[in-house]
C-alpha cells in the first residue's frame, strides 16, 4: 500500500477503517512509502517530494508516521514493525488485535 501520501487524509482513514473491519484477528496490514517522523530529520528529497505533492493537491503530502499509527490503533490495528527501505521510504506493519 503506497498511496496515503497521494490521497486526502480521509482516504487513509477509510483505508484503515476497512482494514480494521475485514482483517481476521492477528492479520497483518502493510503500508509503504515516505513518512515524516517525529525527531528524525526528513531527507531533502522527501521534503521536495512533499512540496510537489502539495502543489498538485493541498490535501496530499507526506504523513506523520505517528498520526498514521494513532489512526490505525483507533481501528484495532497495533503497530508491529518499522522497516527502513531504500530511497528514504519506510514499511509500517500493523497487526489486528486478537481481542
**How many H/I helices?**
3
Q: State the shape.
A: globular
Largest sheet: 3 strands, antiparallel
Order of helix and strand elements from N to C terminus: HEEHEHEE
Q: State which percent range the strand residues make up.
A: 25-35%
Give the helix level as a range of percent.
25-40%
The side-by-side strand order for the widest beta sheet comes to 1-5-4
**DSSP strand count:** 5
What is the CA-atom radius of gyration, in angstroms? 13 Å
Are there runs of 5+ residues with pLDDT below 50, and where?
Answer: none
The averaged pLDDT comes out at: 95
Structural class of the helix and strand makeup?
A: alpha+beta
Distance between the termini: 25 Å
In short, what is this structure?
The protein is of the alpha+beta class. Helices cover 36% and strands 27% of the residues.
Tags for this model:
99 residues; alpha+beta; three-stranded antiparallel β-sheet; two-stranded parallel sheet; 3 helices
Give an account of the 3D structure.
This protein has 99 residues and is an alpha+beta fold. The chain contains three helices and five strands. The strands form two sheets. The chain has a three-stranded antiparallel beta sheet. A two-stranded parallel sheet has the order 2-3. Strand 4 and strand 5 form a beta hairpin. The longest helix has 14 residues, at 9-22. The protein is globular and about 40 Å long. The mean pLDDT is 95.
Give the topology:
Layout: H1 9-22, E1 28-33, E2 35-36, H2 44-56, E3 63-64, H3 65-73, E4 77-85, E5 89-96
Parallel strand pairs: 2-3
Antiparallel strand pairs: 1-5, 4-5
